[in-house]
């Protein structure tokens, strides 16, 4: 469910990665090649990007399918950035949250996306939600599993965790509370990307000499340099380095 992509590198027009490749994120909205759950990602989309000299990203999000939005095509043609995150959404359950449920979620310098589903939502995640302060619950972006996952991640970021720990610990907590959940998370602050492979596909294409890395649900072309991330793995990446760390489930 859902497809997403994050990029760090020399500034490029957003369309270079989001719509021009043969198997781009836009095409994945109706014809993903490696998506294990769901078939069409037409329940919203979004892109967040960083402008030079500004640590707080801008976002463009909509509730409908990306292929029908001509403004998105115009925007990605002219906007250039050296760091961005984009996603197309396949809803977990019917709902009225619309654009608010579309990734990327954002706060301060961070952009976040969740590809997957919290199993037995919302009942299984109730104890984790109850542990959040009421103020943070009232600030949930939407009434969806992804919005709660983002709240759990954001809380750790604000408490000072690095981006890898901020993803890994909520994944462990959620997998314990709701076994069988699919928790592929993607996070960037414009300088680093962190991602988890937990129940669905995750790939990366690294070009250290060029200072360029792409992390995505699936390859957007047939470049032989794409590498698949093993399931139950945390990926952290900068423009010149990629590290993979195995993740273990928390014992009951």
- The shape is globular
User: What's the domain count?
Assistant: 1
Supply the CATH architecture. 4-Layer Sandwich
Count of alpha/pi helices: 7
What is CATH's topology name?
Answer: Glutamine Phosphoribosylpyrophosphate, subunit 1, domain 1
| Class derived from helix and strand content | alpha+beta
| Main pleated sheet | 7 strands, antiparallel
Kindly report the average pLDDT value. 94
Span of the ends, CA to CA = 27 Å
Total strand count, please?
A: 13
List low-pLDDT spans.
none
- What is the CATH class designation? Alpha Beta
Order of helices and strands: EHHEEHEEEHHHHEEEEEEE
Alpha-carbon Rg, integer: 17 Å
Description:
By secondary structure, the protein is of the alpha+beta class. The protein has a single domain, classed as 4-Layer Sandwich (Glutamine Phosphoribosylpyrophosphate, subunit 1, domain 1), CATH 3.60.20.10. Helices cover 22% and strands 30% of the residues. The protein has a seven-stranded antiparallel sheet with strand order 3-2-4-1-10-9-11. A six-stranded antiparallel sheet has the order 5-6-7-8-12-13, with helices on one face. The longest helix is centred in the C-terminal third of the chain and has 15 residues, at 163-177. The relative contact order is 0.18. The model has no long low-confidence stretch (mean pLDDT 94). Pfam families: GATase_4.
Comma- or semicolon-separated keywords:
252 residues, Glutamine Phosphoribosylpyrophosphate, subunit 1, domain 1, 7-stranded antiparallel beta sheet, 6-stranded antiparallel beta sheet, 7 helices, hydrolase, Gamma-glutamyl-hercynylcysteine sulfoxide hydrolase, EC 3.5.1.118, Gamma-glu_amide_hydrolase, glutamine amidotransferase
């Amino acid at each position: 469910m859902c497809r997403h992509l994050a990029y760090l590198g020399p500034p490029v027009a957003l369309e270079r990665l989001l719509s021009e490749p043969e198997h781009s994120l836009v095409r994945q909205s109706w014809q993903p090649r490696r998506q294990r759950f769901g078939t069409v990602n037409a329940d919203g989309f979004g892109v967040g990007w960083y402008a030079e000299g500004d640590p707080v990203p801008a976002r463009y999000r909509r509730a409908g399918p990306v292929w029908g939005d001509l403004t998105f095509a115009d925007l990605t043609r002219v906007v250039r950035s050296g760091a961005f995150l984009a996603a197309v959404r396949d809803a977990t359950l019917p709902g009225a949250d619309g654009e608010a449920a579309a990734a990327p979620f954002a706060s301060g310098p961070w952009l976040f996306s969740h590809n997957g589903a919290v199993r037995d939502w919302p009942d299984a995640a109730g104890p984790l939600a109850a542990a959040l302060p009421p103020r943070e619950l009232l600030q949930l972006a939407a009434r969806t599993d992804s919005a709660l996952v983002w709240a759990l991640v954001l809380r750790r970021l604000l408490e000072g965790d690095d981006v890898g720990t901020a993803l890994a610990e909520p994944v462990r907590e959620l997998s314990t509370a709701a076994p069988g959940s699919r928790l592929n998370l993607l996070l960037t602050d414009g300088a680093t990307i962190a991602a988890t492979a937990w129940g669905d596909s995750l790939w990366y294409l690294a070009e250290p000499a060029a200072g360029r890395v792409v992390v995505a649900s699936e390859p957007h072309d047939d470049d032989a340099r794409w590498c698949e991330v093993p399931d139950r793995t945390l990926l952290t990446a900068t423009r010149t380095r990629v590290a993979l760390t195995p993740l273990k489930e928390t014992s009951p």
